[in-house]
């Protein structure tokens, strides 16, 4: 996937009616772009095809960082859903205002869900991604933003619906990711962050 510029991301977010935080230093925008490659062909790719962009202003100048992620669950959870009675969770594109905070995913720091999000539910246990509008459910499902493992190539069981960075929890890249939020809090913002998911454009 291409590396979008600040202006491209902002224009697309505005087109979709999403808020862009552009007032104040360290006022973080967390925006993931879901790759169209996820839907090429018939089966789940099980690869980290998406991008997560973090951008904010310092003294009026934009800072942007990007990370390889997945916003789609691993193949194992399409065949064996984490919660069989509901089906595989696939986050619906949208803006989730104040729905995340710094916390812990198992033993390591991560952004954890604290507000309601919406998920498609794929219930047929095959390797095809199904995102039917009438399957959408909203609630608290532990759809976190967290780490995987260094040098990982495939998603497998690292995501059952979470957004997962292609980096281990003690890697320098993952520590840098967390630092953005730690620094935002240190500069006076609440430990509540907005997550925006959009489709590749």
Furnish the topology, listing elements before pairings:
Elements: H1 6-15, E1 29-34, E2 50-58, E3 61-70, H2 75-79, E4 88-91, E5 94-105, E6 108-113, E7 117-122, E8 137-139, E9 145-146, E10 163-165, H3 172-186, E11 193-199
Parallel strand pairs: 1-11, 9-10
Antiparallel strand pairs: 1-2, 2-3, 3-10, 4-7, 5-6, 5-11, 7-8
Tell me about this structure.
This protein is of the alpha+beta class and 201 residues long. It has one domain. Helix content is 15%, strand content 34%. The chain has three helices and eleven strands; from the N terminus they run αβββαβββββββαβ. It has helices at 6-15, 75-79, 172-186, and strands at 29-34, 50-58, 61-70, 88-91, 94-105, 108-113, 117-122, 137-139, 145-146, 163-165, 193-199. Strands 6-5-11-1-2-3-10-9 form an eight-stranded mixed β-sheet. It has a three-stranded antiparallel β-sheet with strand order 4-7-8, with no helix packed on it. A hairpin with a 2-residue loop joins β5 and β6 (108-113). The chain is globular. The termini are close together.
